[in-house]
Amino acid sequence: MRDMDLRRNDGSEVQVHDRVVSEGHYGTVRFIGTLPDTKGVWIGVDWDEPERGKHDGSHNGKSYFNTRNPSSGSFVRGKKLDLGINCFDAIVNRYGKLDDPNAGVITEELYVVGSNQKKTVVEMVGARSVNEKQSKLDALQEVVLRGCLVYGVGDSSEKLRKCTPGIQELDLSLNLLPSWQRLGDICKCLPNLTDLNASDNQLEMPSDVSQYTNSFSNVKVLKLNRVHYSWQQLLECSKMFPSLEQLHVCFNLLKSIHSPGSQLQHLVLLNLESNRLESWEQILHLDVCPRLESLILNDNSISSIHFPDANEGSKTKFFPNLKRIYINNNKILQWSCINELDKLKSFEDLQINGNPIQDSASPETVRQLIIAKVANLKKCQRTEVTDEERRGAEIDYLKRFGVEWLKSGGNQDPAQNNPSTDFLTQHPRFQHFVKVYGAPESSEMSKKPQKLKDSLIEIKIVNPDDPNVKTLQKKLPGTMIVQKLKALIQRLYKLDSEIKLSYISKKMEGCEIDFDNDLRPLNYFSIEAGDTVYARWS
Questions:
Q1: Pseudo-torsion of CA 247, 251, 256, 259, nearest 10°?
Q2: Of the candidates 19, 37, 148, 169, the residue with the CA atom closest to the CA atom of residue 93
Q3: What is the CA radius of gyration of the chain?
Q4: Are residues 216 and 298 in the same domain?
Q5: I want to staple 176 with a disulfide (CB 3.0 to 4.6 A). Which of 18, 151, 272, 466 is the partner?
Q6: Which range of residues forms the domain containing residue 255?
Q7: Could you tell me the CA-to-CA distances from 215 to 13, 17, 208, 224 in Å, in that order?
């Protein structure tokens, strides 16, 4: 019944439940055998793509195997399928010595190795140069085998153990691994393995996860992206990883999560990016992870952040060690959510791009408001928060909401300063600012929002090194960052080279001040109407 078409290059035979691929399409073997009125052996495949096949595993009215979808089944000859390769041979093919007769064909590929504003630098490199750098298998520490069609360890476990003892990071994503047993057989040959990527595989859940604990005992970082597991299944998998510190479970279509209980006790980072989570209440279940420092929630549908146990101005008992929340591309709209983040004891890093809250003001203003509202924030939107920026943001906050503060019962006389509860709920740090910087003066508080035309700064732009370059007169918003001003000048003068900016203040003749931070707004440098910007380029 068996024939050569069912054997891999290492002599092993494909079995039911194995994974196979054909023309880039992945599937699971559900049947191996003969069919009436035909010759030879057929392989029944249940394709991952619902419409890839032609039937539900039936032939002439008889069912030979079951499929997940009505038309995802096919009967295929073995010679039309790629049955995979063992892990050691895959490593040799990719990293083996140049003089190794088992090494694969040397191919050349394009890699981007650097770029600047003028051009992207592309270098022709490939397997040969990689081989030269990785000429010794026993020196390998990081191995990437994504898409190499690894089916398991096969009969090469001893070679893997002896020849590649130093592997610490292993990427086995998008391969032909059908089960945790196959994955475990590979990993237990690698005693120094600490980082494992098993994403994009369809690993059948084991009935008893405890039998694989020894295979993954030293793994601290685990990536299980796009494995189509539920939250409960992911928690079951985590039991196989007693040393787990980072767990990445992106793109798993998770709609809900519940308390991990006694699991994930060593977890420092949890990545739930690109799922379907909506409720912050579910996120609070993760509080039982005592060491959690980083929580990545990008690309979900979360609309609120709140800690119900703490009043305004006090600290929550939730997540005592949480330092980072990345919640880009969600549905955060209310500024009260930012107030809530100030309740976290250790919080210092926020990313919140792509949320509706950013539509409430310019990016620069949103950043200032976030910094003012969260006292210990050290990094906002990937950029460090300096002491000077914090001071400026907090003073600006005083001025921005000063009129509202007065109307609510605030007063420059400390004895009469008694703003309403509603105001303090919306602006829990305002009273602290009054104490540190003093109450805002009436002259500093504008009752009406300043119109854009009134906030523009009229400046001259000149090239002091070339008198033939035309001088420009421009009105610019004070909130424009230096980087955007550079881009504007490059466009106006039709430049393709780097430029350096500084300015001369009309109040300090002869004193040239550099714009030394491209991400700062113009008003950070105290530039005023009538000042002259120097633009230099080669």
A1: -10
A2: 148
A3: 31
A4: yes
A5: 151
A6: 85-311+327-333
A7: 24, 21, 14, 16
What is the count of structural domains for the chain?
Answer: 4
| The residue to which tokens 């009054």 are assigned | 434
* Residues 36, 99 within the same domain: no
Check residue 494 and give left, alpha or beta (phi > 0: left; psi -120 to 50: alpha). left
**90 and 76 housed in the same domain:** no
Read off the CATH number of the domain in which 192 is found.
3.80.10.10
- At 404, the amino acid letter reads E
What's the CA gap between 434 and 445, in Å, rounded? Answer: 14
Q: Which residues of 484-517 are buried (b: 16+ CB within 10 A; e: fewer)?
A: ebbeebbeebeeeeebebbbbbeeeeeeebebee
The ranges of the chain with pLDDT < 50 are: 1-2, 98, 100-125, 131-134, 447, 449-450, 452-453
Whole-angstrom Cα distance, residue 182 to residue 179?
A: 5
pLDDT tens track for 462-485: 998 988 899 999 988 888 888 889
Same domain, 169 and 41: no
Contact 87, 145 (CB under 8 A): yes
Q: Which of 433, 408, 437, 435 lies closest to 423 in space, CA to CA?
A: 408
The residue written with tokens 């310019």 in the block is: 362
Q: What is the rounded CA–CA span in Å between residue 207 and residue 239?
A: 12
Compute CA 246 distance to the chain's CA centroid, rounded to the nearest angstrom. Answer: 13
**CB–CB of 370/429 below 8 Å?**
no
Distance of CA 537 to the CA centre of its chain: 37
Decide if 163 contacts 190 (C-beta within 8 A).
no
Q: Is 246 part of any domain?
A: yes
Strand order through the sheet with 25-33: 19-22, 25-33, 42-47, 73-76
CATH number at residue 525: 3.10.20.90
Of 405, 456, 412, the C-alpha closest to 428 is: 405
Tokens of 471: 């001088």
Q: What is the distance between the alpha carbons of residues 256 and 282, in angstroms, rounded to a whole number?
A: 7
Domain shared by 491 and 507, yes or no? yes
pLDDT at 116: 45
* pTM, two decimal places: 0.77
**Is residue 21 in some structural domain?**
yes
69 plus 140 within the same structural domain: no
The backbone torsions φ and ψ at residue 142, rounded to the nearest 5 degrees and listed phi first, read -120, 125
Rounded to whole angstroms, how far apart are CA atoms 453 and 455? 6
Is 139 a domain residue? yes
Residues 172, 107 within the same domain: yes
Whether 356 is in a domain gets the answer: no
Mapping DSSP to helix (H, G, I), strand (E, B) and coil, where does residue 183 land? helix
Task: Give φ, ψ of 182 to 5 degrees.
Answer: -60, -45
Q: Is 536 helix (H, G, I), strand (E, B) or coil?
A: strand
